[in-house]
């Protein structure tokens, strides 16, 4: 920070303030974590200066020997940790990983001369005729993914996202009574819709998915099974999700982020069966900018950590803590979508307290608890105000908090929800006694004191 401060002190101050905030906040955002110092340090170094389009041993730039070393090690760790046939570690984020996977599937499965021509060139070199031909060839392809309000991600075919534009899209939801995926209904939808891609995975679904059943459904309709394990990759690496809960042996292709439960640097990755490897490796420059070798170095370090016994202990504790938090909330009368959790996250239905997700999120923040609002199935308040609060345990588990602390946190959350009043004229405004909020915030801070 001293070095940065000599150049731009405001940035040094902001970095310092972020550290302070992250230390003092009860971080329950299900997609966040704390990467280790080894991971952070691997990201801040001279690899940042290197260009390396292409893949290991086949670069469009000279002088990539060290990048080759780093990328090969990261891919090797990824294959080992996940038991995958092939790993592509270049995607800069989860959304990028999904784009790489989509284009690899299209290129492998669709007879499309314009696509072949496009792949042989840089995307900037495509003219209007090329794009028109591509649209004709690819415009009829179908994607079946989980709907946003059921817990899917916007890249799973949601209209405003490119995935909802490049594919004809249909969504599957959850059973309105149980909040869980209804595999029989999904099978029926797949039979009718006959998608090219059946996409499984979630951002806000508090339950495990049966990937063996998903594969069966995909096979029945001749679809490619793609799994986006961005949220639960750490639980797969940590061997909490095994057998039918582990997507890797069942899916044709798996995309992920590296920074959520997996606890690595911000980034993405694609794992796949051998037949898709060649197309996946064309991700850059087809849909990705030049690789970030410093981040790939950090991915390698994080994946090395993910292969250890300590990481397996962490992954189990993440789930134990989520269960304890959910149980604590339920005991206090808080409503949870699906009635609980069996992964790292839970979804609170705050409408029972007369609140929107937006009001509850702000009130919780006021009391030192950082969460995010989230739509719940068939949400009457839509995706902006919502009726839900998503909570997850990866970050606090990394810090060392256990099931006892989770019960205290459940009490804090319940106290906030029970004492927050909505204002009649706004879905965003609320009142919470400032003295109570301050008392709760100091209890939240106390919980963290033993785990700096
Ligand atoms: N896929 C899923 C299931 C996610 O939850 C997310 C992030 O929220 C992403 C993809 C996108 O990841 P990124 O923000 O790294 O692009």
TrEMBL record:
GO biological process, alphabetically ordered: glycine biosynthetic process from serine; methylation; tetrahydrofolate interconversion
Pathway noted in the entry: Amino-acid biosynthesis; glycine biosynthesis; glycine from L-serine: step 1/1; One-carbon metabolism; tetrahydrofolate interconversion
Modified residues (N6-(pyridoxal phosphate)lysine): 260
EC number assigned by the record: 2.1.2.1
GO annotations of cellular component type: cytosol
Pfam family, one: SHMT
Site, Plays an important role in substrate specificity: residue positions: 259
Sites where the protein binds (6S)-5,6,7,8-tetrahydrofolate: 148, 152-154
Subcellular location: Cytoplasm
Protein name as it appears in the record: Serine hydroxymethyltransferase
UniProt organism field: Phytohabitans houttuyneae
């Amino acid at each position: 920070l001293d070095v940065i401060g000599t150049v731009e002190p405001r940035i040094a101050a902001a970095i310092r303030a972020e550290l302070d905030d992250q230390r003092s906040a009860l971080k329950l955002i299900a997609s966040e974590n704390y990467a280790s110092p080894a991971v952070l340090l691997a990201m801040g170094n001279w690899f940042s200066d290197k260009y390396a389009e292409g893949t290991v041993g086949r670069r469009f730039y000279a002088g990539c020997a060290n990048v080759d070393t780093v990328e090969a090690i990261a891919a090797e760790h990824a294959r080992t940790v996940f038991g995958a046939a092939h790993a592509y570690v270049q995607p800069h984020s989860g959304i990028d990983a999904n784009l790489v996977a989509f284009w690899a599937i299209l290129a492998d499965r669709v007879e499309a001369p314009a696509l072949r021509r496009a792949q042989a060139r840089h995307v900037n070199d495509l003219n209007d005729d090329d794009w028109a031909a591509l649209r004709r060839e690819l415009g009829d392809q179908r994607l079946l993914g989980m709907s946003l309000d059921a817990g899917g991600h916007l890249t799973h075919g949601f209209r405003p996202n490119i995935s909802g534009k490049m594919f004809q899209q249909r969504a599957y939801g959850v059973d309105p009574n149980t909040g869980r995926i209804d595999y029989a209904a999904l099978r029926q939808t797949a039979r009718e819709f006959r998608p090219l891609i059946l996409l499984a995975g979630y951002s806000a679904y508090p339950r495990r998915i049966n990937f063996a059943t998903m594969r069966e459904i995909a096979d029945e309709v001749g679809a490619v099974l793609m799994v986006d394990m961005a949220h639960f990759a750490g639980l797969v690496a940590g061997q909490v999700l095994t057998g039918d809960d582990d997507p890797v042996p069942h899916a044709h292709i798996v995309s992920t982020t590296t920074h959520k439960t997996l606890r690595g640097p911000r980034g993405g990755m694609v794992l796949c069966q051998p037949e898709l490897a060649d197309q996946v490796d064309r991700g850059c420059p087809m849909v990705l900018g030049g690789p970030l070798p410093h981040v790939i170095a950090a991915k390698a370090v994080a994946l090395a950590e993910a292969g250890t016994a300590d990481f397996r202990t962490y992954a189990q504790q993440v789930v134990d803590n989520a269960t304890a938090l959910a149980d604590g909330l339920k005991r206090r009368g808080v409503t949870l979508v699906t009635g609980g959790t069996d992964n790292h996250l839970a979804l609170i239905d705050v409408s029972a307290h007369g609140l929107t997700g937006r009001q509850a999120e702000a009130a919780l923040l006021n009391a030192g608890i950082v969460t995010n609002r989230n739509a719940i199935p068939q949400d009457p308040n839509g995706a902006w105000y919502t009726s839900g609060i998503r909570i997850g345990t990866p970050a606090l588990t990394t810090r060392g908090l256990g099931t006892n602390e989770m019960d205290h946190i459940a009490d804090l959350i319940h106290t906030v929800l029970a004492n927050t009043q909505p204002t009649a004229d706004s879905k965003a405004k609320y009142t919470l006694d400032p003295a109570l909020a301050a008392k709760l915030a100091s209890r939240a801070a106390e919980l963290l004191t033993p785990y700096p």
